Amino acid sequence: MRSVTDLPHPVKEEEHVWIPVSDGIRLSAHVWRPVSSDDDPVPAVLEYIPYRKRDLSSVRDSIHHPYMAGHGYACVRVDIRGTGESEGVLLDEYLETEQRDAEHVLAWLADQPWCDGRLGMMGISWGAFSALQVAARRPPGLQAIVIASFTDDRYADDMHYMGGCMLSDNLAEAGTMFAYATCPPDPALVGDRWREMWLERLEGSGPWVAEWLRHQQRDDYWRHASVCEDYPAVECAVLASSGWADGYSNAVSRVLEHLDAPRKGLIGPWSHKFPHLGEPGPAIGYLQEVVRWWDHWLKDVDNGAMDGPMLRTYMQDSVPPSTSYEERPGRWVSEAEWPSPKIERISTSLAPHRIAGPDEEVPESVLSVQSPLSVGQFAGKWASYNAPPDLPYDQREEDGGSLVFDSDELTERLEILGAPTVELDVAVNEPVAMIAARLSDVAPDGRATRVSYGLLNLTHRSGLDAPEPLEPGRRYRVQVQLNGVAQAFPPGHRVRLSLSTSYWPLAWPPPRPVRLSVYTGHSSLSLPVRPVDGADHDGGRPFGEPEGAPPITTTLKQPPEQRWTVSRDLVNYHSALEIVKDNGVTHYDDINLDAGKRAFERYSSVADDFSSVRGESTWTMTFGRDEWQTRTVTSTELTSDEHEFRLHATLDAYEGAQRVFSRNWSLAFPRELC
Fold first, then answer.
1. What architecture is the 2-164+217-335 domain classified under in CATH?
2. How far apart are alpha carbons 330 and 315 in whole angstroms?
3. Is the pLDDT at 335 greater than 90, yes or no?
């Protein structure tokens, strides 16, 4: 990324500004704005997240907020209540209180003498959720948003549940926020009240996964702040992006299809990253596109921001299986509208262990599988954070415990763009069962690269809000939708569909092992096929090289550690996946602060004992300066049997060597057809 220092406008910044909200709580803001805004007000852009602007997100923030401020915007980064230096306690994600606070922040911004009253919101992940959710509330002055790696559906397409199956990221994300919500504010900004604020957070916080386990089906808890419940509520302009390696690869296409507001979409090969920091590459000049969007919608500049295609996306070429990629080969393509009339759904029947030809008649036969718990150990993360190795590895070992259907060897290039689906006639031997469907690109040497996957809890076959137990032995017609993707399959390769009855640890397994029967001839794979045209081109302006402001300076005092280990003990049949994400200790030079963040996750099981599965998430967060030294250790452990989930969590906080707070939780939740 090119660091840009010769920006059009000199920038001034205020590191800590209090913004009051309705109940007397004050939120802490970092403001970058043009010096000229003292006399010539400018539009304001808000990023609103809980990830600590003072330290843990400060390097990233320093790249894009000063860059946009240097192009004529007041950029304001606010910590959500109960995080960073903001007062209060953070109790859960996307609460009504959080959205009301955002509305008060926007009103405060519009009232500042350096703001002309025109407002935007931006962000990635939580920040994108916030922007889209607040946009649906239509606060005065909010005219445009820029969102990356987000969802419009909190139940069906977030890190909690997929197709009614509980994801292990439900536990992992709860562990993340258990850690972030219990960190202290910096006394250098809030003064002697830091300890009182910290103790309030420690006493008021807890493991959020408890609330998420109370809502195992789509209900009002998940409908709240799910914009898919009322797409017309969003009236401002939306620039939406994501990446094919991200868990949030589906929402861009949905908002393009369903919003009535002005909108553009961008999907690259990236993991859970902003496109100008995109990994795997190629990264793009995203901030230039963002400034262009703000110029058009917040300054009325006639710059053609709405010209060109509705969707620009990266058509990924075939690659060997790997747990990480520096760059994905491929090309940018475009669609003038979405859904695209150019894309044809081609459905082919499933024959015994084959994907049949287009016009082939396939007689009925029955294939059965009962997958071992080991299927899924090479699945990677639900959402890649490009923290290698977190992408799926060679699928051949996974396929050994699955039903596998291969196409004939391709004679010409095949490209798909959209969400593959699988229509299945099935029967099972248990009242609760799941299907994991994987689509792979199989090379001539047999290596299998997972392209997409989808999950379905079969009790949710008639809807995510109305699960019903299955009748063992009864035949059902079900559809499994896989994640959207843009992928090319070259000549000489094969398309593979794999079906399994477990996918641990990416998804929590059903209560008991399940035997699945699939009726071929009545089952099929449907692919969204995009025509391959030698004259095809993107149709949009070429992207520039990634740009940003120079990042703040930091010094690494303790090296990071990344580890991803799959182990199997063939004496006691114990299997485990252990993940270490340790950022080491970073010294933030300008504020003389040391901060450390270490996450440890462990997912284990014994043989095919479905009641033995266990997930663990432990975080250690440290913050210190001279004599001020703090540490929090949060731990969450989830187990289950046929009837209930059992949660145990601990929180310990230290000031220096002294433990100043400790609390344990032990809770149980009935399994609700999950």
1. 3-Layer(aba) Sandwich (3.40)
2. 5
3. yes
